[in-house]
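haha ok so turns out i had the wrong file open the whole time. this is the CORRECT one, sorry everyone. sequence first:
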Amino acid sequence: MTKKLFIKTYGCQMNVYDSERMAGALSAHGYAATDQIEDADLVVLNTCHIREKAAEKVYSELGRMRLLRDQRRAGGSDLTIAVAGCVAQAEGEAMLQRAPFIDVVVGPQAYHRLPEMLAQRGRVASGIVDTDFPVESKFDELPAVSTPSGPSAFLTVQEGCDKFCTFCVVPYTRGAETSRPVAAILAEARQLADQGACEITLLGQNVNAFHGQAADGGTWGLGRLIRSLAEIEGLARIRYTTSHPRDVDDELIAAHRDVPQLMPFLHLPVQSGSDTILAAMNRKHRAEDYLRIVDRLREARPDLALSSDFIVGFPGETDQDFEATLRLVEQVRFAQAFSFKYSPRPGTPASLMKKQVKESVKAERLAALQELLERQRRSFDENSVGVRMDVLIERDGRDPGSKVGRSPWLQIVHLDGPDLSVGDLVTVEITGSHPRSLAGRLVSPPEKRGRAA
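then structure:
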C-alpha cells in the first residue's frame, strides 16, 4: 500500500533541492508525495539554521505535529515524524531529549539513509539520530533526479564551506567544502533539460568554490563547468548561488563575458562595508576588494545586476562602520538585497564577542539600510520600463489568458499571453513598474521561441 509523504521545507534553495531528493529516495520505498499534511503517514521537516530563533520555530512546529499524531492515534492510525536539515545537524541528540516523540533526526549529509532509518525505527523503542558526515557521497546513493515541476530547476554542484565566518553555522551543519564530479553534474543537467527544464540554477553553500573532478582526472572550476552546461541542447538559462567574493576568479568572470546563457544577475554577499567589521566576521576580503570584483564583473558584462546580503549590528559595529556600509551600497547600487539584524548563533565565535550592539541601534540601522536598498531596487525596476527583454514563462496569471514569467534579472513580469505556455521564452517590452513586479507586452510572435520541452 502506498504511504503518503509530506515535506515542509525551510530556508535556502539548497533545502528545496534536498527535499526533492529525499522525496525521490522515499518514493522507491512506497511513499507518494502529498501537499496535505492531514493525509500524511510521514512528515519531514527539512530545517534551516540561518534565521534567528530557527530552532525554536522548529520546536513550535513539532508541537503541532505531536498534536496531529495524537489525533491520528486516537483514530487508529499513526504518523511518523522526521526532522532533517541544519537544525537537526546542530541539535542532534538534544532534539530527542527535548522532543522524545520525534522518530528520526537526520543531518543534511545523511538524508540518503532516511529510508534505512525509518525501517530501523520500527525495530527500536526510541528515536534515531544520524548527524554523521559519512565518507560516501549522498549523491552516489540517491536515485536519479525527479522530473522538474516547471521550466526552472535546481542542481546542487557543491556543498559545505571552509570559510568559517564568525557569525555562520554552515561549516558546522553542512561540513567542509565538497564538489560533485563534473560527469555527474552534466548528466543530471542533461536529464533535467530532457524533461523540460530550460533554466538551471547551480547551488552550493559556496558555489563558486566548486572544484569538481573531471573525467581526465583534472579539476574544473565553476567557470569551465558553466561553459560545458551551456552546450546542452535546450538549456537557455544558467544561474548560480550563493557566492563568496574570494572565489570570484578570472575564469568565472570570463564566463560572464562569453556565455550568453549565463544570466546577467549575480548574488554576491558582502555583509558589511567596513573593513573592521569584515575582519571581525573573518570574511577575508576588504570593501575595496569587493568593489574591484564588481568593477571587473561589470566590465565583462555591462548589463550585470547585483544582489547581496548585509548584516547590521555585528558585535563592535560603530556608527562609522555602518556609514561605511551605506557608502558601499551607494557605490555599487544593488538591484536586490537581503538585510538582517545580527543575531547570535550558538557555537559561533561571534556569539561570544564583546561589544554586542543594542537591539534598538540594530533596528535603527536596519531601517536606514533597507530604505536605501529599497530605493535602489525601485530605481532598477523603473529603469526597466521601455526595455525589451527575454522573459521565461513560469506559470499562469490570476486573470484569464495572463502569464507570469521572469526577466534575466529575476524580476517578476506579468503579461497577457493566451497563446503562451509555461516554458516559453519570449521577447517582452516592459510597460510598467509595480511595487514587486513589472508589467509587459508581448513583442515576439506567439509561436514558441525558446521552449526546451
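The chain has three domains: 3-130, 138-382, 388-442.
again sry for the mixup
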